[in-house]
Amino acid sequence: MHTEEQPYRCDVCNVLFPYPSSLKEHKFRHYNDYRYSCDLCGKGLSHQSDLIIHKRVHTGERPYVLIVCDMSFAQKCSLNIHQCVHTGERPYICDVCDKSFRNNGTPNAHQVTLTEERPFVLITEHSSAGNILANTFPCAL
């Protein structure tokens, strides 16, 4: 969605969002107590490691550098995914059609295109740090 449209409204505080995934992440904050919060923006996080990673959004710190291309990343998992671009490795396989992917979330999104679910499906995943990663994926059928 590349427009300014924000059709998803929080039923708690009436804030509008452009994506259902943004609304879901926002609503999560209403209902959960967080042990840690960012002193720069107030975002609440459950784990200290998540706070450290989050603060990199503000500082611009990208400590994980890939020597092959000099790209840097805020999270090691992002570096590992990008490294597959250079190695050609595609370790994640669709269990329906055997197509391979670099990213572990892509087979799930791809499988939506193999079903009758149209036009949008919300797929929720959890990162290795326990963060909720939610995305909408348009059906390619």
Write a short abstract of this structure:
30% of the residues lie in helices and 21% in strands.
What would you say this structure looks like, in words?
This protein has a domain at 63-141: Double Stranded RNA Binding Domain (2-Layer Sandwich). The strands form five sheets. It has a two-stranded antiparallel ribbon. The protein has a two-stranded antiparallel sheet with strand order 3-4. It has a two-stranded antiparallel ribbon with strand order 5-6. A hairpin with a 6-residue loop joins β3 (36-37) and β4 (44-45). The protein has 141 residues and is an alpha+beta fold. It has helices at residues 20-31, 48-59, 76-87, 106-112; strands spanning 8-9, 16-17, 36-37, 44-45, 64-65, 72-73, 92-93, 100-101, 120-126, 132-138. It starts with 7 loop residues before the first strand and ends with a strand. 30% of the residues lie in helices and 21% in strands.
